[in-house]
Amino acid sequence: MSKINDIANSFDSFIKDDVAVVDFWANWCGPCRMLSPIIDEVADKLTNVKFGKVDVDQAAALAKRYNVMSIPNVCIFKNGELVDRIIGLCDEDELTETIKKHL
Question: Is residue 70 part of a domain?
Fold first, then answer.
């Protein structure tokens, strides 16, 4: 189980400042569960970045708002704006490099 908290109820304030990474996922999604420990590892290394999760089954309106059609779908926000995303399973290096582009 990931140590990254679900932020659906505080989404707008969570993404408002700085760089925030949001993992749109679902419990039934195998690749989502495989990505979870990778996100935890990256979160441990990039301590100046906020990390959160949104369960698309519990927060369908948020998923729709950001056109999340496939999961896992990792969205990177900077000062409240969606600036990048990774769709599907990725490795630690790809996730880290994609986030670092926006620091």
Answer: yes
Annotated catalytic residue within 20, 29, 74, 86:
29
Domains held by the chain: number: 1
Alpha helices in the chain (DSSP H): 11-15, 30-45, 60-65, 92-100
97 occurs within a structural domain: no
Q: Check if 75 is active-site.
A: no
Average pLDDT, stretch 10-19?
Answer: 97
Q: What is the pTM of this model?
A: 0.95
* Catalytic option among 21, 32, 75, 86: 32
Q: Residue 100 domain-assigned?
A: no
29 is catalytic: yes
